[in-house]
Design a protein that fits this description.
The structure holds 2 protein chains of 2 kinds.
Chain A (H helix, E strand, L loop, with lengths): L20 E6 L5 H9 L3 E5 L6 E8 L5 E6 L11 H10 L11 E7 L3 H12 L5 E6 L1 H6 L2 E3 L1 H8 L3 E3 L8 H9 L17 H14 L4 H13 L14 H17 L3 H20 E3 L7 H9 L4 H42 L4 H18 L2 H17 L1 H14 L8 H6 L4 H6 L7 H10 L9 H11 L7 H28 L10 E3 L8 H35 L9 H7 L1 H13 L6 H9 L6 H9 L10 H9 L11 H13 L4 H11 L3 H27 L3
Parallel strand pairs in A: 1-4, 1-5, 5-6, 6-8
Antiparallel strand pairs in A: 2-3, 3-4, 7-9
Helix pairs in contact in A: 3-10, 7-8, 7-9, 12-13, 12-14, 13-21, 14-21, 18-20, 19-20, 19-26, 19-27, 20-27, 21-28, 23-24, 24-25, 27-29, 28-29
Chain B lengths: L5 E2 L8 E6 L8 H5 L7 E7 L6 E5 L2 E5 L1 H4 L3 E4 L2
Antiparallel strand pairs in B: 1-6, 2-3, 2-6, 3-4, 4-5
The chains are: A alpha/beta, B mainly beta.
Chain lengths: 708, 80
């Protein structure tokens, strides 16, 4: 809410009754999250800005006197001229344009000391805002290593605001920072920056219009006018207050005039800021001669080497997958047995009846089947965080960019897609590092085509049924498995290519990516982020999962069969059984009967549930370790006319269906959250399942025609 | 003794150059300039990715990547 300028007081004079709210801003890779975690610890609240899929992080820190201070961690950016929704949120919060977040009183600007000039560009823009600013010079140790001597006192004097030297990783400088943050009387910057002559009249005119027509404070109006001139396509995001028609008109008329004159107005502004920064830097930074190649340079000589680079990438990825599958096994088993124990305990303490079954079989069983995947998901989050915080993620993107560009994506899609081999959920949540909205959406849309670990039990069962003879060579089994993974991967890249050409085409934006120096991982930051993401997944997907689990249970439990019926008979005449019958005309051309139909429906809980459902449908006791009884039961299954149900062709068809079909409610819930609408998860479900049906139809019918 | 201008994408690995010119009034490259690669700034081509693209550049003491196709729009003057 903007107040008329004569009512609102300047920020420095605001009454001390309320502790000031700080915004934390900085370039990417300058240690901003580490500082935020160091300041606020576990006192953080993570949510979303309404209307956009940008994370909102708010934490509480304490002043020297124990007074709570609110800190808003804004998305990292190199400039306030936004190029992505994340950056637009940073800009809009700082300008007080968002109706859901009040303009912060003060700004904490974190700067990479080893990289001062580029970082000062953002500081320079922020000083325009007319709010008290504290500059945090982070990574002083790295600056020293790079042969830079930064005269902190001089910088402080030149800017006229507190500058705190700091090493957030090991907590150095935090006490001084807290002290500065607690000051009631932070000075405003001595910021005599003259707007270059050709632009100055436009800035005054737009600023005047902003005060008059958009009810902005004069101090902010100048900053906003400057930003409007460098905004490339004025990324507008939901939740930000639009510009008045009059101001837009003035802005556009100036831009038209400059364009006709050949004046590069945005370039002039950038140059002029860098000129001011250059003058500052010569005063403040002393270079202690040239230093040889840094440790980072030496590592990169291997990690991005034409030969060794691939080897390192291969080893890192192999290590990642091996550890996911080995480390996750024990906790997964633990969760499995304990959900079963919990269900048994409830069974023992409640009278038999529908309510008890609802809780044990519906809620506990259904949620348990998803929670089993939680260890895997968390380990994946941990590794993704590790790759990000060490700096390797950017190298992997650098190496893979050429290949990914073949299908119209960029290197940043590589890790999310790769992670999806384990589980699409962390993969989809990791797409937040992709700035380009279209690239990000395409990556989300195709990620579930990568065969995830929940498909593995289905593939294994089908391969067992397909090649029942134990003497069949292992090579054939592995070959079929590889074929399925290849099919899914090819599908993902094929559809990415298709979507980038049709649905989401458009000139690709400039792909600029920083390769930050390698760092030792901040384990605490990585763990915090892992817990935070797992929490988001559980909260967001949890309700959907619980709801659908109960619906699936209801479908299988009702209507009740007469007393004494076996579970097989019960399922056969339940709603699920009837749904299977209803589905049969649709899936019969694929070689599937209504019993397989039940399995397809139950797979929405998690694809691996197909295996246990088949166990109930065909009345076969089996476990993960020993699928032989189920395999034999499947072999014995017949159509009513006596034909074999699970012919090798049907097994193969079923596997192909599982490669492509969207059958995972958790993924749907996460895509809903990440795209902020039901439109894309719905589209995704339809295109994936449609493709699955068509391909399975072709394979099955061709196979039939060839006499299989 | 100015050498002939070339495209940034044509710079040899290990060589340095000074930026001469960006495409006229093209907002595409604004972010690159905001990150400090201005006309007159010195840039070094550190290496190319294993598949030849993108490029790894060193600007003002930090490293960034740029695709060859994009770099071809930027004119530079190779340093002697």
């Amino acid at each position: 809410m903007a107040l008329p300028s004569h009512i609102a007081a300047p920020p420095t004079a605001s009454p001390a009754a309320r502790a000031p709210v700080y915004a934390l801003v900085g370039n990417p890779n300058c240690g901003k999250s580490t500082l935020f975690n160091a300041l606020t610890g576990l006192k953080q609240k993570v949510g979303n800005y309404p209307g956009v899929t940008v994370e909102k992080k708010v934490g509480t820190t304490y002043s020297q006197h124990g007074q709570p201070i609110t800190v808003i961690d804004l998305p990292g950016t190199y400039s306030l001229a936004a190029r992505s929704p994340d950056e637009a949120v940073t800009r809009d919060v700082l300008l007080g344009r968002r109706s859901d977040t009040a303009q912060p009183d003060r700004v904490l600007c974190i700067v990479d000391a080893a990289n001062l000039e580029r970082n000062l560009y953002l500081v320079h823009q922020i000083l325009d805002l007319g709010r008290p600013v504290i500059v945090v010079l982070n990574m002083m140790d790295l600056a020293v290593q790079a042969g830079l001597n930064i005269r902190v006192a001089r910088l402080e004097k030149e800017l006229g605001i507190p500058v705190i030297a700091c090493e957030a990783v090991n907590g150095k400088g935090l006490v001084e920072l807290r002290l500065a943050m607690s000051r009631p009387d932070l000075p405003l910057a001595r910021h005599a920056w003259g707007v270059p002559a050709p632009i100055a009249p436009a800035v005054s005119e737009i600023a005047a219009s902003l005060v008059e027509n958009d009810l902005k404070l004069p101090l902010i109006a100048r900053a906003e006018a400057l930003l409007l001139l460098t905004d490339q396509d004025s990324v507008r995001v939901s939740g930000s207050v639009p510009l008045s028609a009059r101001t837009t008109e003035i802005l556009q008329s100036w831009q038209k005039r400059w364009a006709a004159e050949g004046t590069d107005w945005a370039g002039i502004l950038v140059n002029s800021r860098y000129e001011a920064i250059g003058n500052l830097a010569t005063e403040v930074v002393l270079r202690a001669g040239t230093v040889g190649p840094t440790a980072s340079d030496k590592i990169d000589a291997v990690v991005t080497h034409p030969v060794w680079g691939w080897l390192v990438l291969g080893v890192v990825m192999t290590l990642l997958f091996v550890s996911i599958f080995t480390l996750a096994q024990a906790p997964m088993d633990w969760i499995g047995t304990h959900t079963a124990l919990l269900a048994d305990w409830v069974k023992g303490h409640m009278p038999a009846g529908d309510l008890r079954d609802l809780i044990t079989d519906g809620a506990i069983g259904g949620v348990g089947s998803i929670v089993t995947f939680l260890p895997q998901i968390m380990i994946l989050f941990f590794f993704i965080g590790l790759l990000e915080s060490t700096g390797y993620m950017a190298r992997a993107a650098f190496i893979m960019d050429r290949l990914m560009s073949r299908v119209g994506l960029n290197g940043k899609s590589f890790i999310p897609l790769l992670s999806s081999y384990a589980c699409a959920i962390p993969g989809i949540m990791a797409t937040r590092t992709i700035e380009d909205a279209k690239d990000r959406l395409v990556t989300i849309l195709v990620a579930p085509l990568m065969s995830c670990s929940a498909r593995l039990p289905v593939y294994l069962l089908m391969i067992a049924a397909l090649l029942p003879n134990d003497r069949v060579s292992l090579v054939a089994k592995v070959g079929i498995m590889l074929l399925m993974y290849t099919l899914g991967t090819a599908g993902a890249f094929g559809f990415a290519w298709l979507f980038k050409r049709t649905l989401l085409k458009g000139a690709p934006p400039l792909m600029i990516m920083e390769l930050p120096p390698y760092r030792l991982p901040g384990v605490r930051d990585v763990l915090l982020q892992m817990l935070e993401r797992a929490g988001i997944f559980l909260r967001r997907a949890g309700t959907v999962i619980l709801g659908i689990s109960i619906v699936l249970w209801f479908l299988a439990a009702y209507p009740k069969a007469p007393a004494g019926a076996t579970p097989t008979q019960q399922l056969a005449q339940s709603f699920a059984g009837r749904a299977g019958h209803a589905l049969e005309p649709v899936i019969k051309p694929l070689g599937f009967d209504w019993q397989i139909g039940i399995g397809l429906i139950s797979s929405f809980a998690a694809r691996e549930v197909f295996v246990s459902t088949m166990g109930v449908v065909f009345n076969a006791e089996s476990s993960e370790e020993n699928t032989a009884p189920l395999r034999d039961a499947l072999k014995a299954a017949r159509w009513p006319d006596g034909r074999v149900l699970f012919t090798p062709l049907v097994c193969l068809s079923l596997m192909i269906f599982y490669v492509f079909a969207m059958q995972c409610m958790s993924t749907i819930a996460v895509v809903r959250r990440e795209t902020n609408s039901w439109r894309w998860p719905l589209f995704q479900t339809l295109y994936m399942t449609g493709t699955a049906w068509i391909l399975t139809f072709i394979v099955y019918q061709t196979g039939r025609a060839l006499g299989f | 003794m100015a050498s002939t201008p070339i495209k940034l994408s044509e710079l040899a690995v290990g060589a340095s150059a000074t930026v001469l010119q960006y495409p006229q009034q093209d907002a595409t490259f604004l972010r690159l300039r905001e990150m400090g690669l201005l006309v007159g700034t010195r840039v070094t081509l550190v290496r190319t990715a294993p598949l030849g693209d993108p490029l790894e550049l060193k600007v003002r003491g930090y490293h960034l990547t740029l695709r060859k196709g994009d770099a071809a729009h930027i004119l530079v003057e190779p340093a002697p």
